Amino acid sequence: MTTVLDEETLRARVDAQLATVRSVLDEHVTAAMAELPEAGADYRNLWGGIGDQLEGGKFLRPKLFLATYAGLGGQEDEAVAPVAASMEMLHLAMLIHDDILDRDEMRRGKLNLAGMRRAELEALDLQRRQVNSHVLAAALLGGDLALASAYDLVSRAALPAHHRLACLDLVTRAIRTTIAGELLDMCGDLIPPEQANALLVAELKTAAYSCVVPLLAGAQLAGADPTMATHLERMGISLGVRFQLTDADLGVFGDPAKTGKSVLSDLRAGKRTELMRLAFHLADDTQRAALEASVGNPDLDEEGAAHVREILVATGARTHALKVARQHARIARRIANERVPAPLSTHLV
Questions:
Q1: pTM of the predicted model, to two decimals?
Q2: Confidence at residue 3, expressed as pLDDT on a 0 to 100 scale
Q3: What sign does the CA torsion over 167, 233, 13, 108 have?
Q4: What is the CATH number of domain 1-159?
Q5: Domain ranges within the chain, ordered by starting residue
């Protein structure tokens, strides 16, 4: 007998299914740690690090997938759990590789794969260059393992072949789109900040794999029609762009104790966010000179960062960026309210 969904029931069903998703991930990592014993402790420890990195996440992408699947009539919760797990594993792979590009060794307030490997090597009498090489290798290979696991989890799901192939295609789409966005982001420092297309980067690098693909995968497995998929894609883009704009604001103005995110790293890296694009576009000559001296300076201290924040507020850049975020939130809500059935519509936005 099919249970009639209301918002409370949908939320409870998603929350309950998350426990299954976590179990799927735990079992996947545990099994991988036991394979290839001839590869030794380093291979086993690398998988252990992946398992450690999976802890503490918000599981936003599995939640979007599970809610969409259930909200559009899907009933086989256990069968689709590996696909939900794949969404989180894909996210982890993106985080690991993003940290390599940003030269970060912390994630979610604790050591990431690179940081863990550096800590393991501290007791050894190695040259710095050798340590750095091993640290990079651990992070790169760990990210590759997570990426392969995203495919592995889907391919082994107890689903009809056409559903598995469709989800595998979506994983591929997510990877290619995210790489395109990451490349645009990395090449942003080759052009003036005010010319960076930060909104396109947000759509490609964040919205595609964080929102669009989980929504489409849930719709695919629930048997939704192409029209619904189109509405969900449009909504997912706006949800993802809004998320990225808000995240960029927190990266400068947030409370690290609450976000687990430094308020200096993005400024030191000279990230070409929409917030920063607007600041350079709106700044007068004096403000622009201060921004040029501070943004992208790896030695920027809190005093310098505080001055940058003053300029972001004074120019109106922060107000404008947050306004764009609110506009995308409204677009997502409108699509949800007009095109997506309840209770999924209210759950998503």
A1: 0.94
A2: 60
A3: positive
A4: 1.10.600.10
A5: 1-159, 161-349
Residue at token pair 């651990």: 138
Question: To 5 degrees, how large is the angle CA 173–CA 50–CA 85?
Answer: 50
**Secondary structure (DSSP) of 244-266:** HHHHHHHHHHS-HHHH---SSHH
Per-residue pLDDT tens for 86-102? 999 999 999 999 999 98
HSE value, Cβ hemisphere, 13 Å, CA-based, for 262: 16
204 near 178, Cβ under 8 Å?
yes
Structure tokens at 342: 């309840």
Burial of 220 (0-12, 13-18, 19+ CB in 10 A): buried
Are the C-beta atoms of 112 and 105 separated by less than 8 Å?
yes
94 closest CA partner among 167, 146, 55: 146
User: Domain spanning 161-349: which superfamily?
Assistant: Farnesyl Diphosphate Synthase (1.10.600.10)
Residues in the chain: 349
Examine domains 1-159 and 161-349 and report if their fold is the same.
Answer: yes
